[in-house]
Amino acid sequence: MPQPSLPTESLAYALQRAAQALESVQKGTALPQALAQATTQCAPTVRAASQDLAYRAVRRLGSSRALLALLVKTALQARVRDILLCALALLQDDPEGAAYTEFTVVDQAVEAIAAQRRTAAAKGLANAVLRRFLRERQGLMAQIAKQPEARWNYPVWWIDTVREAYPDQWETLLAAGDSRGPMTLRVNTRRTSVAAMQASLTQAGMASEVIGPVALRLAHAVPVERLPGFADGWVSVQDAGAQLAAPLVLGEHPRAGMRVLDACAAPGGKTGHLLEMADVHVTALESDRTRVPRIYENLERLGLEADVRIGDAGNPSKWSGGGWDGVPFDRILADVPCSAAGIVRRHPDIRWLRREADIAALVEEQRRILLALWGTLAVGGELIYATCSVFPSENEQQAQWFERVCSDAVRLDAPGQLLMTPGGAHDGFYYARFQKR
């Protein structure tokens, strides 16, 4: 922990917390968990500042690493390295619109290093490194621009995969993933209307626009506690692309009492949307028992009920509650585990946590789940295959494989691949729909 003499509201303190989180991410911990560990017992303002710094550092990790390699030729302590990476991420911003002056960033980064006994000896080095970057910025940035990982801030294998899949769009897609996604709301029409919700937002000083049947995009993100009616279930936070799932599952005229399985359901966003739309019986299945409470919390807030089960979607006989009861489902939403490459603008750590070898393993897992769930679907029923990925091996190639191996599967119309764009309304998603004959 930092020395008590360092003011907790200072940029230096926030840099220390962000650097601790960044170190954990580089060791394989997801950024939200890393931040939670790094900011335990911190005030909300400190957590917010640390989060902003950490997310910025992760988004600029490729370029910051390349810069540090040019600026320092000796090995650095991990904490010194990560404070410098956080500072370099800040200094790469256009000075005109930067959150902090260049002097402040350098001064506070040096303070952050000097305030800890184990790193204090490196304060002179840190000062020299950051000041050299400011003096030679243009030349240094030109040098690292020749390195794909530094230019795009993605691992090389990720860049190559996207470029091969989308030869005419790959640069736009990578740039979109490096932007910040909008805050989009899903209105619960059992509790209010889109027009009434938008009026409530306007009254609260929050500008919004309608971008879907029940979707409102906020001009500026806000903490969910500030959203009018959030605690009472008027509205949920859900990306516009994710809001396509429930209507695709239920169709235009859902039958009351229809049996619907939401496989891989946590945190319950799509489960809630299904129940908001129609009086159907939803089984919400989740394999990770630590995430199941989130499903209950969301359902309680929305005033809705579902049959929540714990278990592997690929092994129906082992689901909690005695396993699958043998009664076929009319609809199945298979929102399967995937690379999450389509939501990288919201979760920038994904690009650094994923490994190329992970994709092949995920493809096999997706196939196992699909085949198992197909056996629980009624004849005439429909299965929707969904991912939040942009990698074809998890998406269209999977749909084509499924058509080949399941002779009783008829492919129906679905949105297919949705790609994110800079400033676009939705993340990257994929949807395929099959009927059992």
UniProtKB/TrEMBL annotation:
What is the scientific name of the source organism?
Pandoraea captiosa
The UniProt entry, under Gene3D superfamilies, shows: NusB-like (1.10.940.10), Sun protein, domain 3 (3.30.70.1170), Vaccinia Virus protein VP39 (3.40.50.150)
Q: Which residues form the SAM-dependent MTase RsmB/NOP-type domain?
A: 173-437
Q: Which GO terms describe its molecular function?
A: RNA binding; rRNA methyltransferase activity
**Residues where S-adenosyl-L-methionine binds:** C264, A265, A266, P267, G268, G269, K270, E286, D335
Enzyme nomenclature, EC number: 2.1.1.176
**Keywords assigned:** Cytoplasm, Methyltransferase, RNA-binding, rRNA processing, S-adenosyl-L-methionine, Transferase
Q: What does this protein do?
A: Specifically methylates the cytosine at position 967 (m5C967) of 16S rRNA.
Q: Which GO terms describe its biological process?
A: regulation of DNA-templated transcription
Active-site residues? C388 (nucleophile)
Q: Does the keyword Signal apply?
A: no
The family classification in the record reads: Belongs to the class I-like SAM-binding methyltransferase superfamily. RsmB/NOP family.
Q: Which Pfam families match?
A: Methyltr_RsmB-F, NusB, RsmF-B_ferredox
Name this protein carries in UniProt: 16S rRNA (cytosine(967)-C(5))-methyltransferase
Q: Which reaction does it catalyse?
A: cytidine(967) in 16S rRNA + S-adenosyl-L-methionine = 5-methylcytidine(967) in 16S rRNA + S-adenosyl-L-homocysteine + H(+)
Tell me the compartments it is located in: Cytoplasm
Question: Might you report a single GO cellular component term?
Answer: cytoplasm
